[in-house]
Amino acid sequence: MSPPHAPTEYPPILIPRSFTTTEGNKTGSWRFLRPRYDEKTAPCSVACPAGEDIGRIEMLVTQGLFKEAWETILLENPFPGVCGRVCHHPCEAVCNRHDFDEPIAIHVVERFLADMATRYDLRPKLPKLPPRPEKVAVVGAGPSGLAAAYFLTRLGYRCHVFEARNEPGGILRWGIPTYRLPEAVLKNEVVLLEAQGVEILCGKRMEMGFLEALRGEYAAVFLGCGHGRARPLVVPGSQLPGACTDGLQFLESIRLGFSPQLKGTVAVIGGGNTAVDVARSALRLGARPILIYRRRRGDMPAFPEEVEMALEEGVVLHELRTPVHIEPSPSGWSLTLQTMEPVGQPEGLPAEVRPIPGGVERMAVEKIFVAIGGEPADAFFAPPEVGAGTLKLGNCLLAWAGDGPPLVYGGDLTVEIQSVVHAVASGKEGAMALDVLFREGLEAVEPILASCRVGPGPALSMEVFLKGLRCRRNAHVVKYSEINTDHFTFAPRIAPPRLLREERIHGFAEIPLKISANLAMQEAGRCFHCGLCNQCDNCRLFCPEIAIHREETPRGRRIDYDYCKGCGICVVECPRNAMSLEEEEAS
Amino acid sequence: MKVELPDHELMHSGHVGCPGCGAAVAMRFLLNGLGEKTVMVIPACCWSIIAGPYPQSTLKVPVLHTAFETGAAVATGIRAALDVRGERDVTVVTWAGDGGTFDIGFQALSGAVERNEDFLYVCYDNEAYMNTGIQRSSSTPYGAWTTTTPGRDWKKMRKKNIVEALAAHRIPYAATASIAYPDDLVAKVKKARSIRGSRFIHIFSSCPTGWRIPSELSIKIARMAVQTNIFPLYEVEGGVRYTINLKPKGYLVKEYFRLQGRFSHLTEEDLDQIQEMVEEDWELLLRKAGTMPSL
Ligand SMILES: Cc1cc2nc3c(=O)[nH]c(=O)nc-3n(C[C@H](O)[C@H](O)[C@H](O)COP(=O)(O)OP(=O)(O)OC[C@H]3O[C@@H](n4cnc5c(N)ncnc54)[C@H](O)[C@@H]3O)c2cc1C
Ligand SMILES: Cc1ncc(C[n+]2csc(CCOP(=O)(O)OP(=O)(O)O)c2C)c(N)n1
Ligand code: SF4
Ligand code: SF4
Ligand code: SF4
Ligand SMILES: [Mg+2]
């Protein structure tokens, strides 16, 4: 009771005030699904025979880290400048972006990086292992031999490359015309390779007895001597003097600096890259070339883009025809052709064809070029039959006989598809196989190589072999349906500038022109970076629990499982499937 | 994504929202745009619970929990008190659910904005009374199942257009926003914060529990609401100047409805009809925006 005249007293305002946070509630205990960071494999990197880490390369380019991007290629392939130009880029055929708008122009970015490195005269910083006692001899300085030597050198071995000709490069130097591969591009990459410690000895043709001579000095030999001899055309009249010109020799003479003037119609027999290059070169020297191929255009082993460019330039294709007879004529030669028809198409193979009865054509030509495939110039370089004493790997063959050093056959001698990047892949595989053989023995070769596959393989990763960060990748290959396309907008694929047709056909200048850094970044920016975290921060941004925190680690962030309720938003909102959601283990 | 969330946010972990709660994401973005000079008024709603039981609070700004229908009135009072104390740099924000905004709190809201009280009213819209067990509100969309519109009695009325109602009060700023578009949301919050007088933001906030959707699709579904034109992103300044902020990719309404359990009873014909309704609303909005925008 208050006294009667005391002043009025108001009761205190009683509003309960919170004084602690909710962090005491470990809401992570509600969780029955568990998100985690889980980088996966991009389809492009599986399809690249050299296993380049393409998703990451594009990411680095997007961030303007050009040198790092270039070095990331060099981890797996010493020839970005060459491959950015002549590789048939199987990577792009499987690019997930294809299902959205158009595939990433991976080869254009690759070429840009190599050109950038040349322009600024960059030297790569690559992991190199301490020296090993074994020395390895490499026969042939084509892409397979050079790649083998490059990877062996990085693994710590001393390598001598013996090359018959006076310059390295193989078909890159003597076959592929300069409108596709300028000489300087090859030279620059060979110089970098030598700077890594590869020793190339030119003008050293290895003869039959070389194995004997090398014994004791070299612990192994890599054979990458390619298909130096053209397969001859055998039809009545083909042996007449001057009737047939070997296509590969024709290309070589141009690369040696002899450019014969041609005129009139010339026939080019064949459907591979050599035939197409012969036709395009002949066109540039003044002839009207006609390509003669026994199956259909779609069956040609030449890369489709090359065929398309050839036709664009004015080369004529006569498909479903095969030469049966050659005889001299007043203006040159008279070529008799048998017309063919397709009879069936076995799954994944070129069509089967048969002659159409009575289907005979005759044409008058000035010259006949033959480019119907090659074989090893020296029979003793042909790889042995697979059997006892051999181990068949993806792109090369390991053989050991008697007490001689083990041999690895690679490049065109053993690959399934004759291409530069397959040659590189075989060199890398050979280098890994020899390293395992020396250090752990034959039994270990297959299992260790299998553990270095990119996704399901067959491409192999040197970075994984060297236990780099790429080891952490899940082998699962990211599908288009696993990309959250809400986070991407349509953007057309880059159309790199090139010489006009008129500018092309009068010389051997390179056709595609250089692109700016800006365009390269734009193109790389279209990449989904399938399965790879590019630090976009979506997972952290959309988390209702504030349970994802940034940190200074390569991964860049961590999930606080004390509070993560397992809603799964982060996993769905990750644009590129770099996370996984799994059932929580019962505790 | 331009939004940069700071490493130290104004909200703590350990809140008790359901897994995947869109309203929790909405609060995170809101606070990011507001900063710490904020006083929050929360009338009864899920967020009364999410914020934590006494003596906890999940927010690092002062919060006043108030009665269901009083969000705008309490904010008015707090603003007046702050003005007396000369604290002009503090933003007063009411944070209410759709029930507390469209229905029971509407008269207080209408009154406050008619007087052009200086505060920001944010409605996080989960399209029903979720906290009390999914009862329909005037924000529940046409076609939806709730516990008070069960079975064949699914809701046959359209969703009330709250932004239009607020714009009709000719307030300085009214806008829609979505948890799926953080850049847009935060930009709108910052803009609203810089304006004096009554401001209103309507945030679409998915509710896995009430909508019968998988929690991981919470953001995705909010994004689809925008992309289908069901929930367009736009602003109205001074009650008359319309700006549409995003041109949708144009998903079909169906794709949005088919992901949600609350719409699972709808037939193809129902969905076609809803598609028409959505198009009608969108065209109306375009007309108000004064153009067929070449966005
Ligand atoms: C005209 C043409 C165009 C082509 N275009 C493309 C293309 O666009 N893209 C693509 O990916 N692929 C292309 N290819 C295929 C590609 O060039 C080959 O698959 C690749 O070069 C094979 O590499 P390699 O190392 O096995 O052999 P090669 O490149 O043939 O190199 C073999 C090397 O071994 C040397 N050698 C041979 N015998 C001896 C010996 N006894 N002692 C010492 N050295 C020896 C040779 O002189 C040569 O330098 C083309 C091929 C040709 C012919
Ligand atoms: C006057 C009054 N009536 C009813 C309630 C019970 N109640 C508390 S929260 C709520 C629902 C709120 O719905 P909404 O505003 O949409 O917010 P949500 O829970 O959906 O987030 C109800 C009905 C109350 N607190 N006060
Ligand atoms: S989008 Fe990028 S990472 Fe994905 S497949 Fe294409 S190039 Fe590779
Ligand atoms: S959402 Fe972004 S930051 Fe998070 S894991 Fe995926 S790519 Fe990385
Ligand atoms: S009921 Fe819905 S709005 Fe309420 S806390 Fe759960 S998810 Fe969030
Ligand atoms: Mg509600």
Rg over alpha carbons of chain A:
30 Å
Q: Which fold does the CATH topology of chain B refer to?
A: Rossmann fold
- The pLDDT mean of chain A sits at 93
**How many E strands of chain B?**
9
**What oligomeric arrangement do these chains adopt?**
heterodimer
Main sheet of chain A?
Answer: 7 strands, mixed
What overall geometry of chain A do the principal axes of the alpha carbons give?
elongated
CATH architecture annotation of chain B: 3-Layer(aba) Sandwich
Mean pLDDT of chain B: 95
Shape of chain B: globular
Offer a quick outline of the entry.
The complex is a heterodimer of chains A (587) and B (295). With 587 residues, chain A is of the alpha/beta class. Chain A contains 20 helices and 22 strands.
Structure, described:
- The complex is a heterodimer of chains A (587) and B (295).
- Chain A is of the alpha/beta class and 587 residues long.
- Helices cover 28% and strands 18% of the residues of chain A.
- Chain A has 20 helices and 22 strands.
- In chain A, α4 packs antiparallel against α6 and α11 packs across α12.
- The two termini of chain A are 61 Å apart.
- The model of chain A has no long low-confidence stretch (mean pLDDT 93).
- The radius of gyration of chain B is 18 Å and the shape is globular.
- Chain B has one domain (22-289): Rossmann fold (3-Layer(aba) Sandwich).
- In chain B, β6 (173-178), α7 (182-193) and β7 (198-204) form a beta-alpha-beta unit.
- Chain B has eleven helices and nine strands.
- The longest helix of chain B is centred in the last third of the chain and has 21 residues, at 268-288.
- Chain B starts with 21 loop residues before the first helix and ends in a 7-residue tail after the last helix.
- The mean pLDDT of chain B is 95.
- Chain B has an eight-stranded mixed β-sheet with strand order 3-1-4-5-7-6-8-9, with helices on both faces.
- In chain B, α1 (22-34) crosses α7 (182-193) and α3 (71-84) runs parallel beside α5 (106-114).
- Chain B has 295 residues and is of the alpha/beta class.
- The interface between A and B is large, with 41 and 38 residues.
- Bound molecules: flavin-adenine dinucleotide, thiamine diphosphate, iron/sulfur cluster (SF4) (3 copies) and magnesium ion.
- One iron/sulfur cluster is lined by residues 42-44, 54-55, 58, 95-97, 104, 106, 527-530 of chain A.
- The site of flavin-adenine dinucleotide (FAD) has 38 residues of chain A, from α7, α11, α12 and α14.
